[in-house]
Structures are given as structure tokens and as C-alpha cells.
Write a structure and sequence with these properties.
This protein has helices at 30-37, 91-103, 113-120, 126-137, 141-151, 154-178, 189-208, 210-218, 232-240, 283-297, 313-323, 355-362, 375-380, 397-409, 423-444, 449-467, 473-480, and strands at residues 8-11, 20-26, 38-39, 50-58, 61-71, 82-88, 107-108, 220-226, 258-264, 267-273, 301-307, 329-335, 386-388. The protein has 487 residues and is of the alpha/beta class. The structure holds guanosine-5'-diphosphate (GDP). Exhibits a very high intrinsic GTPase hydrolysis rate. Involved in the addition of a carboxymethylaminomethyl (cmnm) group at the wobble position (U34) of certain tRNAs, forming tRNA-cmnm(5)s(2)U34.
Length: 487
């Protein structure tokens, strides 16, 4: 995995027909190999960062007219000699040129091998190398920004600073070990405690940032649930501003889940419309109800929609109670608010108190007051905040979008802070935190320098794993095998 004495070659652009394809060579012989088949200038005599027109020929047979970009190491992505050939993107031409390079001494690159070399040669640290993959996979403004920040080393710089401080103390404690007989303390315990406290705080903040970082990178699973006919499909359409899901009058017709992506200010919310949560009467619907409950447990956000003109207080309370799951934020949405002021729900004989009644008693439905959400008053009725909308009339959809966004982002996104997006980094940070807690406990319990030193080294080890100061072949294999060939 870590042999980088040879020259590697791969297609750097996607497979398939296009205008141009880029074939990349990296390694000590990259320029010589390209030069041996290039008809044009002598590439070995050209300066770095220059582009040359010519053709690639296998003996007398011209394969293509190309542009050759030269990057002389160490001024390149991999810090090795790198040559990029821009040729015409025919599968036949690409294959012929790569085969020719292999005949001349290059070998096919393994997945992620260019980036691996960039890491091994000190161009990028490990978290930056991972950011390359994230950047390529980014599909929203926010995910692109976070990956770019990590690629530029924001995260690495922060970790590096933490490590340096810890290394200082570790070495002082090591010194104490050397003078063990003399019972000296080079490392001031109070200072050490303060430092560990500070580091633990930063590590804790990074750990906490994962929830948002992950939301940005992978999107937020969002379930829209509610009784049949509450207006879930209509709401989904209103949110997406398109006629996607099938809207119908027959209760229970949205039997299967539909997944759509709603992008709010750069964050992808994966909306899942589900079958109604009413007690199911037939088998197919039963599956739908079950699936709703499953989807809710797999989500971060639940948008519970009810028909404000129809639902009774008891039903509403039951729904809210039964849909609440730990770790899932619930937004309660009163739909069909446009019907509230025309409500005929106070008809005689209605045995249970309806939501519309309660709402009618508590508020007047002037045009202006209709869509306000008097949250504190609702709390006095035992309800959470309720957002009033009309999915059909598209009223208050933007307000709802804002609530959806802020449920995921809260107040954390200021633009330049470091967000952890990678589960590997999260785990290493958690282990660092555990080790730091042991260090603190050790100082308080006055344990001996050698144990203290061990725990500090553990913390250093885990911090180092993130940027790759500490690596194993397995770890590298694991990370880079997930890259595509050519990266
Ligand atoms: P679902 O079963 O929860 O997906 O409900 P649908 O989206 O299929 O809507 C059921 C019915 O309610 C349809 O006839 C919709 O046109 C109607 N509806 C949905 N939202 C509103 C609304 O805000 N106001 C009114 N008046 N009708 C609505």
C-alpha cells in the first residue's frame, strides 16, 4: 500500500464519453514516460507548471492530439513529478494511452493512490486527504464549505495546537521519570490541570459539532407524518414547490414512503412522506404505519402534520405522545389553517372537543391573526409550539422551512468554525476525551508520573490518529480504498 517508488497512471476524469478526459501520471518517471511517447517539445527540458500541445504516438501510430500539463515535484499534488494528459474522451483513446504508459513502465494506480502519495509525502495530512473525498462528494453549498475548510487545514491547525501543548507537558513529565529517585515535579500540577481542562473543552466542542457537521455532510433525515388526509402530500409538494407526491382525497392512499430532498440554505433535508398513522384497517396499511414508526426512529426530525379543522384535542394529544422519540426533534404543524375561520366543527352532537373549538375559544380568526402561532398560550394547553400553515394555499411555508432549518442548525453556523463531519474523527476525539478525563482524575488522585504520562500519551495518540501523525497500514488501507481510482 505504501510503496511509492514507482510511477502510477490512471484516468482522473469520469468514465464515459465527454469532450475531454484527463489521464494522470505521478512518480519519479512520470515526465520520462510521457516524453517517450510525446511528439512535440522535449518535455524533460520544460519548466514546471507549463502546458504543451503535441500528439501521443505508439511508434508510428498517432493515438491522439493532446495537451500535456507538467508539474515538476515537489510542486505538485503528490509532491512527485506529475503529468496530466488532456486527450479526447473516447473510451478507445483513453484505454490506448493508458496501456501505452503501462508498456513504458507505469503501473495502474490503486483507488486513492494519488491522494495517499500526497499524504505520505507530507502534502496533506490525513484529515485533509479525507476532505478531498468529501469535497468531491459534496452536493450542497454547506457540505462543500465544510469540506473546503477541512482541506485548507482549519481542523488540522486546531488539533496541531492542542497536540503541541500536550507534548510539552508529556515531556516534562517524562523528565520527572528520569529523576524518579529525587521526587521532583517539573510539570506544575495546577497548570497541567488547567491545560487539560482547556483541551477537554475544545475537544468537547468538536465532539458536539458532529451533529451539525454530519447533518451538513449527509443531510438530515426528516419524516413528515400525520393522520390520513392531514395534508402530508400537499405539504411535501408545497415544500418542494412541485407536484411530486400523488395527492388524493381517499384516506390512506400514500402507502409507500416517498423520498425527496429539500435544500434549505445549503443543507439537504431528506423528506420522507409516509403513510398515515391512523389505526390501520388493512394489512398493507399496517405495514405503512409500521414503516412510519421505523422511519421516525431513523430520523433526526419529525414534522407532525394534523388537520386543524378536524382533529380533536384527544387525538392531537395522543398523536404527539405516541410519536415522540428520544433524539428526534418534533415540529407540530397545524395544517388547513385556512379552514379555521370557516370552521363548522362546532356542529351539534360533536362529543369530543375539537382543536378548532379550542382555537376558536382562545383566539379570534381575523385575516391577520389567522396564521400567527401563539406558542406560549398553546403551552398552557399542554401543547408544544404549533406552527400554523395552509399547505394548499401555500401559507407560512417559508416560516415552516425556517423552523426546519433552525431545528438542525440551531445557532452554531457562523461560517468559519470547525465542524467535525467524519465518524472516524468523532471516535478519535471521544477516545481523546476519555484519556483526558483519566489524566484529570490522575492529577486529583495524585497518581505517579508514569501513569500520568501513559494517559497523556494515549490522548496524544488518538489526536494524532485524526491528522495521521499516528497511522497504521490498516488505517490507511481503510481510508484510501474508499476513494475512486484516479483520485
Ligand atoms: P395526506 O393523506 O396527509 O397526504 O393528505 P393530502 O395531501 O392527500 O390531502 C388531503 C386533502 O386535504 C386533499 O384534498 C387536499 O387538497 C386537502 N388539503 C391539504 N392541505 C390543505 C390545506 O392547507 N387547506 C385545505 N383547505 N385543504 C387542504
Amino acid at each position: 500500500m505504501t510503496d511509492n517508488t514507482d510511477t502510477i497512471v490512471a484516468l482522473a476524469t469520469p468514465n464515459g464519453v465527454g469532450a475531454i478526459a484527463v489521464i494522470r501520471l505521478s512518480g519519479p518517471d512520470a515526465i520520462n514516460i510521457a516524453n517517450s511517447v510525446f511528439k512535440g517539445k522535449d518535455l524533460s527540458k520544460q519548466a514546471s507548471h507549463t502546458i504543451h500541445f503535441g500528439s501521443i504516438a505508439d511508434g508510428d501510430l498517432i493515438l491522439d492530439e493532446v495537451l500535456v500539463s507538467l508539474f515538476v515535484g515537489p510542486r505538485s499534488y503528490t509532491r512527485e513529478n506529475v503529468v496530466e494528459i488532456s486527450c479526447h474522451a473516447s473510451g478507445y483513446i483513453i484505454e490506448s494511452i493508458i496501456k501505452l504508459f503501462i508498456k513504458k513502465g507505469a503501473r495502474s494506480a490503486k483507488p486513492g493512490e494519488f491522494t495517499l502519495r500526497a499524504f505520505l509525502n507530507g502534502q496533506l495530512d490525513l484529515s485533509q486527504a479525507e476532505a478531498v473525498a468529501d469535497l468531491i462528494a459534496s452536493n450542497s453549498k454547506a457540505s462543500q464549505q465544510v469540506a473546503l475548510q477541512q482541506l485548507r487545514g482549519g481542523f488540522s491547525t486546531q488539533l496541531q495546537a492542542l497536540r503541541e501543548q500536550l507534548v510539552n507537558f508529556a515531556s516534562l513529565i517524562e523528565l520527572e521519570l528520569d529523576f524518579a529517585e529525587e521526587d521532583v515535579e517539573f510539570a506544575n500540577r495546577d497548570q497541567l490541570k488547567q491545560l487539560i481542562h482547556e483541551i477537554t473543552k475544545i475537544v468537547g466542542r468538536l465532539i458536539n459539532s458532529f451533529e451539525l457537521g454530519n447533518a451538513i455532510k449527509n443531510g438530515v433525515n426528516t419524516v413528515i407524518a400525520g393522520r390520513p388526509n392531514a395534508g402530508k402530500s400537499t405539504l411535501l409538494n408545497a415544500l418542494l414547490n412541485e407536484e411530486r407526491a400523488i395527492v388524493s382525497h381517499i384516506p390512506g392512499t400514500t402507502r409507500d414512503t416517498i423520498e425527496e430532498v429539500l435544500n434549505i440554505q445549503g443543507i439537504n433535508f431528506r423528506l420522507i412522506d409516509t403513510a398515515g398513522i391512523r389505526e390501520a384497517t388493512d394489512a398493507i396499511e399496517q405495514i405503512g404505519v409500521q414503516r412510519t414508526m421505523e422511519k421516525i426512529s431513523q430520523s433526526a426530525l419529525l414534522v407532525y402534520v394534523f388537520d386543524a379543522a378536524e382533529i380533536t384535542i384527544e387525538e392531537l394529544n395522543n398523536d404527539i405522545a405516541s410519536l415522540q422519540k428520544p433524539g428526534v426533534t418534533m415540529l407540530v404543524v397545524a395544517n388547513k389553517a385556512d379552514l379555521l375561520n370557516k370552521s363548522d366543527s362546532q356542529e351539534a352532537g360533536m362529543s369530543e372537543r375539537s382543536f378548532a373549538d379550542l382555537f376558536a375559544n382562545a383566539y379570534s380568526f381575523g385575516e391577520r391573526g389567522l396564521f400567527t402561532s401563539p406558542s406560549t398560550d398553546f403551552r398552557t394547553f399542554g401543547f408544544p409550539d404549533i406552527i400554523f400553515i395552509s399547505a394548499k394555499e401555500k401559507h407560512h411555508i417559508d416560516e415552516l422551512k425556517h423552523k426546519i432549518y433552525s431545528s438542525a442548525v440551531k445557532d452554531q453556523l457562523s461560517g468559519d468554525e470547525t465542524l467535525v463531519t467524519n465518524i472516524r474523527h468523532l471516535e478519535a476525539l471521544q477516545k481523546t476525551e476519555e484519556a483526558l478525563v483519566r489524566v484529570l482524575g490522575g492529577i486529583d488522585g495524585s497518581i505517579t508520573s508514569d501513569f500520568l504520562s501513559m494517559d497523556i500519551k494515549q490522548a496524544l495518540h488518538y489526536l494524532g490518529e485524526i491528522t495521521g501523525v499516528v497511522t497504521t497500514d490498516d488505517l490507511l488501507e481503510n481510508i484510501f480504498s474508499k476513494f475512486c481510482i484516479g483520485k
